[in-house]
Structures are given as C-alpha cells and as structure tokens.
Amino acid sequence: MKLISIIFFVATILIASNECDGLEHGSNYQIFPLRMKSGLGGHYIPDVSCQSWRLGVEAHNVINWKTVPQECETYIGNYMVGDQYRSDSKTVNREGYLYARTLNITNYDIWVFDVDETTLSNLPYYAQHGFGVEPYNETAFNAWVESGVAPPLPETLKLYNKLVSLGVKIVFITGRPQKQRDITAYNLKQAGYYKWEKLITKDTSIYGGKTAVTYKSSERKKLEEEGYRIIGNSGDQWSDILGTNTGLRTYKLPDPVYYIS
C-alpha cells in the first residue's frame, strides 16, 4: 500500500511539474509525461509493444521478419480493417497528388505503382490467414491471386484517377511472375485501373533468386533508358522504393502484414 501511494505521489508531482501553459510561446497547451508501458499494478499492456513493432516495420528499422508476432494478431487485424489503415493510406496518396499537380506533365512522365497492397488489396485473403501471423503459403496465396477478385485500395485508386486526369502515364511493376500477368491485368481492370502504359511482371528466368530491390531497380532503369521520367513511385514495401532509378519522389504505403526484401 505504501509503494502504491508513493508511485501515485511521484506521478502527481511529475504531471504538475510538466504542465505548461505555453504562454511564452503564445499558445495555451499542456504537456504530460508519456504513459508507462505497464498498466495499473504493473500489468503488461500488449498493444503498446505491438504499436511500437508496427512503427519499427514502417520505419524500416524492423527488417527481414517472417511473420507478424502471434501476440499482435488482434492488433494488426484491428488496424487493417479499421479506419487507421485507410487514413494512413489516404495521407500517403494525398501527398502524391499534391506533388504531381505542381509539375508540368510531359508525354514521357510516368508514375510507377506496385500491385499487391498498393493498388490491389489482399486483405480478404490475409483476414483468413491470421493477418500475417501464419507463415506464407505459396499454394494458397497463388490460388487467391488466380481468382482475380482482389479489391482496389480505395485511396490508391483515387490517386490513380487523378494522375490519369493530369496526363501522367501509369506503369505497374509487380513481383508477381509472368504466368500471372493475364489474371493480374484482368483483376486491375475489374478493380477500376482501366488503362496503363506498361504492366511489368517478374521474369523468373532472369530474376529468380534475386531480391525485389534488384528486380525493380533494373526494370525502372530500363524505363528511364526508354526515355521515360519517373515522377513518382508508390509501393507498400521498402524494396519497392529502394535501390536505383527510384524516381523524383517515392511514397511508402502502410503494410505491417508481410515483408519482402
């Protein structure tokens, strides 16, 4: 009981000492210390660590991970199907449009989009597979891809339509293999991406065993050698926007479900 009283007393002093009316800055606000990682009675708060894990993933500090931590399944699921995921996507895509409209668009300007979790969403699939907690199952995922029913990411579709209206040409570069090109083209059109300059799928005879960074850098280089100017480059993986020939601006969409190097 004494220990609890002391903790409460110290916390009260900290809050009081950190309150600031901000008058010296011409504003009125209060500053409070950050919430402790443990709850009342020292109980662990799982969501705090899961939020930190997701931040590490999006900042590319947590890398080469294979699956979402088991204890974070509920947190990641709630994030993906809740308002925050779409809000985060909206912020990224909005910045892309605000940038694009400042440019004098030419006939050689293109915007590079990834496909999975950038233009098309596999959320219906991952909702049935633990939101990334389950290890990747190539057979099951390919069956989902072949169904051709992946919905669009709404905020990316909005950016796509705005870019097309500005006269920007669209190029898709996906890690999907060439044998899935036709179903990917079908799915994109069904989802509302009705026109594009190029749809580039992965030639495994050339890029088999190589990283996504190597593959996408090489394909972007080819585009620039053909005379195109990459004004924007959007992807959900860091490997979509790292490497060479990344374009004038890059845009990282949220994806705490899987990692591709």
Report on this model:
The protein has 261 residues and is of the alpha/beta class. The chain contains eleven helices and five strands. The longest helix is centred in the middle third of the chain and has 18 residues. The termini are far apart. The N terminus is likely disordered.
- State the secondary-structure class: alpha/beta
Main sheet: which strands, in order across?
3-2-1-4-5
CATH class of the domain at 84-252: Alpha Beta
Instruction: Provide the succession of SSEs.
Output: HHHHEHHHEHEHHEHE
Average predicted confidence as pLDDT: 89
Q: What share of the residues does DSSP label as strand, in percent? A: 5-15%
Defining key terms:
261 residues; alpha/beta; Rossmann fold; 5-stranded parallel β-sheet; 11 helices; 11% strand; glycoprotein; HAD_sf
Record the SSE blueprint.
Elements: H1 2-18, H2 46-58, H3 73-81, H4 83-100, E1 109-113, H5 123-127, H6 138-147, H7 154-166, E2 169-177, H8 181-190, E3 198-202, H9 204-207, H10 212-225, E4 229-235, H11 238-241, E5 250-252
Parallel strand pairs: 1-2, 1-4, 2-3, 4-5
Helix pairs in contact: 4-7
Function: May function as somatic storage protein during early seedling development.
Keywords: Glycoprotein, Signal, Storage protein
Organism: Clitoria ternatea (Butterfly pea)
